[in-house]
Amino acid sequence: MSTTTSRALPAGLPAPGEESMTKPYWDGTRKNRLIVQRCRGCGHWQWGPEWICHRCHAFDLAWEEVAPRGRIYSWERPHHPVHPALQGHPPYVIVLVELPHADNIRVIGNLLGDPLQEVKIGTAVEAVFEPHDEADRPYTLVQWRIAV
After folding, report:
1. What is the pLDDT of residues 32-42, one digit of tens each?
2. N or C: more exposed end of the chain, with fewer CB within 10 A?
């Protein structure tokens, strides 16, 4: 796990909402921590954030830190910008990362490195925290790189 010194994504992307259900996640990324929801009742890990446990339907969810390492479960290489700030930026690689330290829940992010690199399902990756301090509301993205 590390913080990037060069940016994978350009400035101008929308910042996460201040009152969003995901605020604890974004607060964690600002501290270079990967945190996700876990049910206090049954222990089930889950992503995306919800008010209710996906397994036992309890309303007793907490946010817990997980190891910022996983494996590529799936991937895609978009060749079109999905936001005006990404104009001229594609292609890039988006990965769905399975987190073995959290019952294999899956989170999404960009894979750093050559946008035309070969990507293999099952490859070990580690989180890289990319700060966007210039934004009106500073935030940090979780990106992924091949683990060494």
Report:
1. 999 999 999 99
2. C
